[in-house]
Amino acid sequence: MRPRVPTNFSPCVRLLRRNYTYNAPIPNYPGHVPTNIFQKLFLAAGSGIYSFFDPTRGDLIATLGEATALPFLMERLRDRMLADPTGRRILRERPRITSSSLHIDQLLEYPENTIGRTYAEWLKREGVSPDTRAPVRYIDDEECAYVMQRYRECHDFYHAITGLPIIIEGEIALKMFEFANTAIPMTGIGAVLAPLRLKPKQRERLQTIYFPWAIKNGASAKPLINVYWEEILDRDVQKLREELGIEKPPDLRGLRKKRISRL
Amino acid sequence: MGFYTRHATLRVFVPGCNAALYSKFRPSSRFSSSLASAPPVAGETASVKSDKASSAYDKIASCLYDVVVVGGGISGLTLAAALKSSRYTSHLRIALVEGMPLASVKSWSPDPDIYSNRVSSITPASQQYLSQIGVWDHVHTERVQAYDDMRVWDGVSGARIHFDAFHLGTEDGTLAYMTENLNLQHALLSRLGSLSSDPPVTILDNTKVAEITNGYEFDDVDLSSWPTLKLSTGDSLTARLLIGADGVNSPVRAFANIESRGWDYNQHGLVASLEMEWDDRQRIAWQRFLPTGPIALLPMPDGKASLVWSTTPKYAAHLKSLGAGAFCTLVNAAFRLAMVDLDYLISRVDEEEIKEDFEWRDARLPVEAEGQQFPVRVVEVQKGSRASFPLRMRHCDTYVAPRIALVGDAAHTTHPLAGQGLNLGQGDVASLVRVLERAVQHGSDIGDEVVLQAYWAERYPVNHVMLGVVDKLQKLYCTDFPPIVGLRTVGLEVVESLDWVKKMIMRQAAGSSVL
């Protein structure tokens, strides 16, 4: 293999590196940054610590997710997709969820209680858009990278279908639900470590209401990764919940308002 | 029917044998019979010559055989050919009884485009033995495929082991010869036909054995220990030594009250004759261990191949019912794709859907792996060549009883994953012939149990070890329980990196320790 010497260094660096042969690893897909185990550990530690203190850094959470995505578990998730006819079709067609592919304003016109309408209303209420999802960079297998990307893009649909808000408590509850459903390590790490930042009352709510709900429903529900969201936007939300085996949890915003109003 | 008294020593009862000259049966001229009850050499006393008496004795004489082989399969025919080819035993009077007609086998004229689906892997040791007894010259060698490379891998973990006769330096570089069973049978029959020994082997084909009993005990001749066969044609044969080469459900073994122990695998062996996309002339035998059972692709001449896929009975029935295109796609998928993909494809029925899905998954595999890590694509399956049979392991307690010996599948049955079944039978035949030669040279009665036990003592441990190893391999690889998969992967990779272990395995499998 021809040695690849970085040519954008200054001339004196190139002089010093005259005899140095550097073989850059070859990316497996566009945007792939190949990393070895030590680099992954470093990324995981760094992004984990920083995102603990600043949970609004979505890109760091994404990095944590990719760095801790053990190939064994990602392949297991991918195999679960391959075993299901719809999941297989998703892997073959590789749909991507962006604001242009979904036409959010059209979705707001959909009938009440359809998945599309619920999703669009949730996006509006929380003030987010589907374009805020970072592309996958550190997962080495190309197909597993798509699985992670798909999971990330569908995360908002999981919010919509469960009704959990975007506040930290809601995110943690949803992470626990995803961990029980997909076994992605980052979801487990987030669900276990992030509550340390919460106030005692919030933790209590999580422990008594939302974690039991998340574990019970996540484990017993059908794998959400196999749902072809783009095709079922006009279907009833409750029917989909029944099909997948998910119960709607108590309204978190409602519970918080009640507590604040009582104080 | 009545009794004929020849002279003071002989009285016999003969139900309808064909007449033959007495001189053809003279057991004692070259060696003395150790059993006092054996028929004496008549014709030596002067008082004997009465026409009526001599024709009666002709009748019994013609029913008495030194060796009767029940079963005209490869083991039985090889035994007959070997006995007749050996100068020590060629004078023995041998009969061979086979239930199916052999005329079509004898007159077999092979079509170069069509290969039978019953194919066996002949080890170099077996091939050498067949050569030694003059059978290999009659084999159509253009239909025999020698192979010198075997690639075996684990379907769950992908661990591989590569047996390469060329690089591992075994004697002649061939691991085994893929031969159609029909080819061998035809060669054996040709050899038997071409042997000029006197008396020739009496082949009674299209004849079933209706009953096996003990012989008659007369005044002067006690044939009660001699097994007598009653044939479906009404004739009778009485044997000094009865050989059971009659397959898994051996009536001879039942008559001898020998118990056969073992178990059925919940698997069927699906065989088919396939055609590859192109002839890569690599002479590689491929085997992948799937959790449902191993799939093996053995090379045949002219870019054809033979498939042996041991799988669950449900899958075997489903695979037989599929169209040819879908079947070939599934065979390709079984060698290339992950278990999750194969399980998905097997559950589909639409041929187009199966093909498209397979093409999608196959496109992700590296191009250079074709022909190296898995075989070239299969494109056609020969019409009518898909068949399946149940798989089982059986080993009988003893191979010998007084005046009875068992060879081949009657004595033992094994899983086809190591290609050893037929070769163990060949080893049995070689050993039994050696024992009989020794007996003849020493003047012993060839049916004597003491004589025959040397055969059992030589073959039983060898067969038992091979059967045991094959059975444990089958049990080890028919699971996807992760700890066992991990252990077997480590074990396989260790063996793969140790050339001396691989050489030992190849030598054992080639049967060189047998002869």
UniProtKB/TrEMBL annotation, chain A:
Task: List the InterPro entries.
Answer: Coq4, Coq4_euk
Alphabetically list the UniProt keywords. Answer: Lyase, Membrane, Metal-binding, Mitochondrion, Mitochondrion inner membrane, Ubiquinone, Ubiquinone biosynthesis, Zinc
Q: Per UniProt, what is one GO molecular function of this protein?
A: 4-hydroxy-3-methoxy-5-polyprenylbenzoate decarboxylase activity
Predominant cellular place of this UniProt entry's protein: mitochondrion
> Which reactions does this protein catalyse?
a 4-hydroxy-3-methoxy-5-(all-trans-polyprenyl)benzoate + H(+) = a 2-methoxy-6-(all-trans-polyprenyl)phenol + CO2
Pathway given for this chain reads: Cofactor biosynthesis; ubiquinone biosynthesis
Q: Which residues bind Zn(2+)?
A: 155-156, 159, 171
Claim: Ligase is one of the keywords in the record:
no
What cellular component GO annotations does this protein have?
Answer: extrinsic component of mitochondrial inner membrane
The UniProt entry lists membrane topology as: Peripheral membrane protein
Query: What are the names of the required cofactors?
Result: Zn(2+)
Per UniProt, subcellular location reads as: Mitochondrion inner membrane
The protein's assembly and partners: Component of a multi-subunit COQ enzyme complex, composed of at least COQ3, COQ4, COQ5, COQ6, COQ7 and COQ9.
Q: What does this chain do?
A: Lyase that catalyzes the C1-decarboxylation of 4-hydroxy-3-methoxy-5-(all-trans-polyprenyl)benzoic acid into 2-methoxy-6-(all-trans-polyprenyl)phenol during ubiquinone biosynthesis.
HAMAP family reported for this sequence: Coq4 (MF_03111)
Q: Which family does it belong to?
A: Belongs to the COQ4 family.
Instruction: Return the protein name.
Output: 4-hydroxy-3-methoxy-5-polyprenylbenzoate decarboxylase
Q: Which organism is it from?
A: Lipomyces tetrasporus
Automatic annotation (TrEMBL), chain B:
The record's GO CC annotations read: extrinsic component of mitochondrial inner membrane
The pathway this protein participates in, as annotated, is:
Cofactor biosynthesis; ubiquinone biosynthesis
The residues that cross the membrane are none
- What residues does the FAD-binding domain cover? 65-463
Q: What's the cofactor?
A: FAD
Question: What compartments host this protein?
Answer: Mitochondrion inner membrane
Keywords of this entry: FAD, Flavoprotein, Membrane, Mitochondrion, Mitochondrion inner membrane, Monooxygenase, Oxidoreductase, Ubiquinone biosynthesis
**EC numbers on record:** 1.14.15.45, 1.14.15.46
**Record's NCBIfam families?**
COQ6 (TIGR01989), Ubi-OHases (TIGR01988)
**Function text:** FAD-dependent monooxygenase required for two non-consecutive steps during ubiquinone biosynthesis. Required for the C5-ring hydroxylation during ubiquinone biosynthesis by catalyzing the hydroxylation of 4-hydroxy-3-(all-trans-polyprenyl)benzoic acid to 3,4-dihydroxy-5-(all-trans-polyprenyl)benzoic acid. Also acts downstream of coq4, for the C1-hydroxylation during ubiquinone biosynthesis by catalyzing the hydroxylation of 2-methoxy-6-(all-trans-polyprenyl)phenol to 2-methoxy-6-(all-trans-polyprenyl)benzene-1,4-diol.
The family this protein is said to belong to: Belongs to the UbiH/COQ6 family.
> What protein name is recorded for this chain?
Ubiquinone biosynthesis monooxygenase COQ6, mitochondrial
